[in-house]
Amino acid sequence: MLAFLSFTFVMSFTPGPNTIMAMVSGQRRGFRRSIILNMGMLTGIALIGLLAALFANLLQAAPLLVTIMKVIGSVYLIYLAYHVAISSPDSNDNDGGGKFTTGLLLQLTNIKLYLYFVTGLAAFTLTGLAASIPLRWLLMVIIGSAGTLAWTGAGQLISGIYARYYRIINIAVACLLLFSAYDLWR
After folding, report:
1. Any idea where the domains of the chain sit in the sequence?
2. Mind giving me the DSSP string for 99-122?
3. What is this structure's pTM?
4. What pLDDT shows up at residue 101?
5. Which of 34, 144, 149, 169 could form a disulfide with 25 if both were Cys (CB 3.0 to 4.6 A apart)?
């Protein structure tokens, strides 16, 4: 169980497309106004988790499907990187970055999330109650959502710095998103 929980926490709290966008939203909108984005991410996490639980064997055996998901995910990450790079603090209500659908779409194209669930639900041999796929799914959804909320809070904490250095921060975040798109193919 310790290995499973360690894997889940590390995957949930390390940088990825969703945590980066959660941080940006926290910087630009604050924690409370970022809840809608986080709800979209939560919905996406839960949905992908259910799909992974139902189709884990298919995902592991269908490299073409994984390649298609990588292409879609890469295109979406590049799109997000562009919008983050060109945004400014005063454009925060018009870019759509805080929308429920933005969070949901980000998760649906997040290959890290698919790997999170396929590995977390299939690769760990657990006993007793922890062997239950629904319980592991629930723990992974809760911990995954806690990761995005933590990054949203961290974003709000550095919002003062963001207001002064937004261009540099936006370029750095856009580069991280581009790296995430590249990293899908390694």
Report:
1. 2-6+18-183
2. SHHHHHHHHHT-HHHHHHHHHHHH
3. 0.76
4. 93
5. 34
Helix (H) or strand (E) holding 55: helix 35-61
**Cα 135 from chain centre:** 21
* Rounded CA separation 114/30 (Å): 28
- Residue 84: CB atoms within 10 Å: 24
The answer for residues whose C-beta is within 8 angstroms of residue 20's C-beta and 6 or more apart is 151, 173, 176, 177, 180
| 3-12, 46-55, 118-127, 148-157, range with greatest mean pLDDT | 148-157
d(CA 166, CA 182): 24
pLDDT at residue 94 greater than cutoff 50: no
Place of tokens 């629904």: 134
3-class state of residue 1 by DSSP: coil
